[in-house]
């Protein structure tokens, strides 16, 4: 990027998370990602550069090796003119959601990450003049803990996502509990996957977004009328799945288009875009726990009909869900089993603070760090090295639990792109597609105690919620703690 060519009017607000803000170029297929901070928190330009460089190195040397180079785009750190950044910040400030404005975009360091725009097709650069739709899914954790360290039995039956929904609604973050369950999506069973995707479309929260030509057209809102939103979405997508005008219309149009969308998403999630080799597979333990979550509405329906097991068809090796689940399962101990190991490391570092770099607590995220991750021994020898390894594996697993999968689709014309492409066939159309993974930042070591407290809060709130449903009188008394029960003689 040449400094003299930086024009803030060529960039537009793209979106943001808790720690970063993204803008995209109007013409070029790139985005810039900036760190965000609470007012008053100042990091030096050197610290920000080091942090961004660590994100790039983590993606390049760790996540790419686990997930595959076809899926991971780690980008590069770039330095930009400060006057351009100030103008850009003023330009996009009015476009930011009010709920996100409590943190400020970093414009003082001059550093940002430059990445490909993953809402665009990554496998063919000749389709920019044709419409492109991109589905962003944040699938979350796809398995139930199997660790012996789990203290609350409910964690062996109900997944974290479904439990966390109750706390989020209670706090007012969302108005309704989502019926989506990650274990249904990761099951590999198409019926369960369709059910999961249908529920994401009904209650997207921040787990589903859909872009058309780079513009957000669906998701990231607490919907007041999901039916009207789906009607609008089907209007946007109709030409992708039914190119012939007038082919479908009337009240069944929305249902037909959404059904096609769900089917295409399922096929791309189960597809393999690279030649899978057994040597590429990292030694991840086989999932031995439940293949379903008791809070899932699929499970409830089957159990209601007298079926006591939920089918799990399994995921094809090499598909994006299989790869993501493998990395998630580096979390062998659950946060409850990890905290004692964190305390062991902390106690050791209090006595030997110079060993922090030797244990690679703050990186660097290089080949040595990756070699540590390959040790999946579950036998604790009491060493600080064992504890540090399990902590690193947990942090990588947490990254995979919080990543986003990007599926870009564009109409396929065989005579226009002659080389081999990834193509998915719908009922009345063919679509080129690319699958990528986003949000692969490393998780901070110092965040582990917070994760433990949050886990306890989620589980305890869920237990209270289901107890209140089972015992309405108990719920009434909890809400009216000052009430007095008076017994009178009859």
Automatic annotation (TrEMBL):
<dbReference type="Pfam" id="PF06090">
    <property type="entry name" value="Ins_P5_2-kin"/>
</dbReference>
<dbReference type="GO" id="GO:0005737">
    <property type="term" value="C:cytoplasm"/>
</dbReference>
<dbReference type="GO" id="GO:0035299">
    <property type="term" value="F:inositol-1,3,4,5,6-pentakisphosphate 2-kinase activity"/>
</dbReference>
<dbReference type="GO" id="GO:0005524">
    <property type="term" value="F:ATP binding"/>
</dbReference>
<keyword id="KW-0539">Nucleus</keyword>
<keyword id="KW-0418">Kinase</keyword>
<protein>
    <recommendedName>
        <fullName>Inositol-pentakisphosphate 2-kinase</fullName>
        <ecNumber>2.7.1.158</ecNumber>
    </recommendedName>
</protein>
<comment type="function">
    <text>Phosphorylates Ins(1,3,4,5,6)P5 at position 2 to form Ins(1,2,3,4,5,6)P6 (InsP6 or phytate).</text>
</comment>
<keyword id="KW-0067">ATP-binding</keyword>
<dbReference type="GO" id="GO:0005634">
    <property type="term" value="C:nucleus"/>
</dbReference>
<comment type="similarity">
    <text>Belongs to the IPK1 type 2 family.</text>
</comment>
<dbReference type="GO" id="GO:0032958">
    <property type="term" value="P:inositol phosphate biosynthetic process"/>
</dbReference>
<keyword id="KW-0963">Cytoplasm</keyword>
<dbReference type="InterPro" id="IPR043001">
    <property type="entry name" value="IP5_2-K_N_lobe"/>
</dbReference>
<keyword id="KW-0547">Nucleotide-binding</keyword>
<keyword id="KW-0808">Transferase</keyword>
<dbReference type="InterPro" id="IPR009286">
    <property type="entry name" value="Ins_P5_2-kin"/>
</dbReference>
